[in-house]
Amino acid sequence: MTPVISLAQAAAHVRHGSNIGQPLTRRDGVLKVTGGARYAADNHPAGMLHAVLAVSSIARGRVTFLDVQAAKGHPGVVDVMTPANRPPLAEDPDAKTNPFMFRLDLLQNDQVRYANQPIAVVIAETLEAVTEGAALLSPRYEALPARVGLDAGESFVPPAVGVGNPAEMRRGDVEAGLVAASKRIEATYETPAQYHNAMEPHAIVAAWDGDTLSIDTPSQALVMAQGRLAGLFGIAPEKIHIRSPFLGGGFGSKGLLSGPQVLGILAARLAGRPVKLVLRREQMYGPVGHRPPTRQTLRIGTDGDGRLTAIDHHAKTASSTFDDFFEPAADASHTLYASPAIATSHAAVRIDTGTPMFMRAPGEATGSIALESAIDEAAWACGMDPLAFRLKNYAEVEPISGKPFSSKALRECYAQGAAHFGWSRRPLAPRQVRDEAGCLVGWGMGSATFPALMFQAEARAVVRSDGSGLMESGAHDMGQGAWTAFAQIAADGLGLDIDQVEFKAGTSDLPDAGIAGGSAHTATAGMAIHNAGAAVIAKLADLATADERSPLFGAGNAGVVARGGRLFRRDDEGRSESYADILGRAGLAEIEASGTGAADPAAQSAYAMHAHGAVFAEVKVEPDLGQMRVSRLVGAFAAGRIINPLLVRSQLLGGMIWGVSFALHEQAVMDRRSGRTLNANLAEYHIPVNADVPGVEALMIDEHDPHVNALGIKGVGEIGVTGTAGAVANAVWHATGIRVRRFPIRIEDLVASASS
Ligand code: MOS
Fold first, then answer.
1. From the alpha carbon of 357, which atom of ligand 1 is closest?
2. Among 94-98, 575-579, 713-717, where is mean pLDDT lowest?
């Protein structure tokens, strides 16, 4: 059942005529805080069984034995799915026909390719029975030594990085630029594997009715998931109904359907009854993607004036042995700094790990912490303040492509962020400041950037004879506020108050809203919604202006404007007519139209499109214990038109806190012997808690960008993590004088030499 999202907002939040830009609270907020929001695993269709994955405890080898009889003998256990009885698929899960298609582990054989790979699925009447049954499988293995870490195998140049980006790019002569430089730095930075750890684990409730499949499962890209399942099961996409009204976070891990979700569907097929399968927390460290480790070397040259002469950014990363995802970390150096010579290159190694995947700002996050650290080191080598150095060197045309930026708002981000933070009081040298408690205080900064992307989306708009509106687009709310932001765009597109607009999203039967990823959802689906609204209003205007009984007769389509449920003549606003009257006279119950959202290729070839920002961090370091705390964080971001400042602020704060996490907390610790993640849980996988981030402020810098799309929308989901991680690392250096180049920065990196 599609959830009912209340149409009514608190009266104080109702705006007449212009909904875009208003700080409306979430339309689904009451449902969420009262437990009324139904997440995938909250669904319990009649006759539902429970399924639990059994996962491999080795990272490489094969399964030689599973005690299926013991598991099946446990009371309540209905069946055990193994490679021996897994229902057939129409498509090989190891087939790959495009870079967005990832290989899945669906019990195709006895091979183990990484730790926590699914090796069986137990199905039972209750969660207790299935959990106990899975424990009775007692798998045995033939294990091979696990290959772990960036040096575990032969290094190669990946065929592409990210999705189809060249692994190597250059502009200008980097070696010549380095030779000509009066100052040079070379430094190597390491970032660890990280896991998405969405609050809501991957979950699925699957029910078959003949060859029709209904599933409740979180998805950041419903129609892509539908297409993948259609291929795997050999059925038409229209026979697959996916409901994903709410996601408890995704961060990229729910962008593409994962293997465990498909296993839930296969279990329902095998059992002939609906099945629920929910990953346990530790099972999310393997089959559902992660951010791979990187080792990045930057060489930067500067001339006597502190201007960049060269940036060389090389990144080594790791992918799985059986699939291709290569973190595009070095690409972070393509856009921010105006070096006449830039070279980026990637190398990779294959290790015994689940395939890495997009994780919030994939490439930009990892690359940014290395680049911003190196820029800081270059500034210090020149004896320059890091802000002054960036102001001298930030790019006004995109260095790698030579295209002008659609905006030059970065300068404004530097200025307003620095003023708000009080940056001008920063002493140049490190280790100069202590607070009243004796802690070392340091200030650091970083530049933020993220591309303003658009994919493809569709929407359908309806105006009904009672004057109300309906907008449909199968959009995805991962927690970012899509239910609300899209309703705001819909209301303005339809010329209605937001409480007159019903907005439907979150199911695969609606028009394709594309993917909620790449920070592109609001721009892409938002433009589809805006265009659908405009199209239906144009139809209404055609009806009215062609009808001599209408006060708008003869005004022409372009001669009317929609507002508050009425069309007005532009040349005489005293003459108007309500939508209800127009439809009523035409004898129509409703009128509908569709719209699409997509990038404008002409604008894209003429301009480089990015959101920008500047982040300033203060850290305090306890000199004897090396304990670090971020005490203040100020980010200033220019990200085009802000649809809802309340929601955008939350996105930026979340991204910035993730940046703190990147610099100081997050790391999947690998056991080099077993190839397993030692801290595969939320107790030992460190993320910041409230006490770790006392003060965070996000300033939204006004930016009108006429080129990105008609509404001027850029993305805000991912930019916050870029810039912030480097700012925190640079602040740690400024506090202590110690440059730590392996992340996260640990107490032991500081404690030996921090005390004075
Ligand atoms: Mo994001 S990593 O594009 O979901």
1. 2
2. 94-98
3-state secondary structure of 667: coil
Rounded Cα–Cα distance for residues 326 and 363 (Å): 9
- In ligand 1, the atom with minimum distance to the C-alpha of 254 is 4
Q: How far is the CA of 253 from the centre of ligand 1 (A)?
A: 8
Contact between 155 and 316 under an 8 Å Cβ cutoff? The reply is: yes
Tell me the torsion sign for CA atoms 168, 169, 175, 180.
Answer: negative
Q: What is the CA radius of gyration of the chain?
A: 27
pLDDT tens, 513-547? 999 999 999 999 999 999 999 999 999 999 999 99
Q: Which residues line ligand 1 (CB under 6 A)?
A: 220, 250-252, 255, 358-360, 362, 517-518
Strand, coil or helix: 56: coil
CA-based nearest residue to 41, from 194, 247, 222: 247
Cα–Cα distance for residue pair 485/716, rounded to 1 Å: 12
pLDDT in tens, 183-220: 999 999 999 999 999 999 999 999 999 999 999 999 99
pLDDT tens figures, 280-303: 999 999 999 999 999 999 999 999
> Exposed/middle/buried for 162, CB within 10 Å: 0-12, 13-18, 19+?
buried
Pocket test for ligand 1, best of 163, 202, 244, 251 (most atoms within 8 A of CB): 251
Which ligand 1 atom sits nearest the alpha carbon of residue 220? 4
Q: Has residue 7 got a pLDDT over 70?
A: no
Catalytic status, residue 618? no
Kindly give, in sequence order, each residue whose CB lies less than 8 Å from that of residue 520, ignoring residues fewer than 6 positions away.
452, 453, 454, 455, 514, 715
> Could you tell me the distance, in angstroms and rounded to a whole number, from the CA of residue 363 to the centre of ligand 1?
11
Given a cut of 70, whether residue 752 has pLDDT beyond it is: no
- Ligand 1 centroid vs 434 CA: distance in angstroms? 39
pTM: 0.96
Beta bridge partners of 216: 205, 243
Name which of 290, 67, 246, 60 is nearest 153 in CA terms: 60
Model confidence at 406, pLDDT cuts 50, 70, 90, reads: confident
Q: How remote is the CA of residue 515 from the centroid of ligand 1, in Å?
A: 9
Length of the chain (residues): 756
Task: Supply the DSSP string of 184-242, one letter for each residue.
Answer: EEEEEEEE--B----SSPPEEEEEEETTEEEEE---S-HHHHHHHHHHHHT--GGGEEE
Q: Could you read off the pLDDT of 635-646 as tens digits, one per residue? A: 999 999 999 999
CA distances from 722 to 67, 105, 196, 652 (A): 48, 32, 16, 10
Closest Cα to residue 516, out of 716, 709, 259?
Answer: 716
Give the CA angle between residues 390, 442, 385 to the nearest 5°.
Answer: 25
Residue 12 has pLDDT above 70, yes or no: no
Instruction: List the catalytic residue out of 186, 458, 718, 748.
Output: 718
* C-alpha span between 567 and 422 (Å, rounded): 50
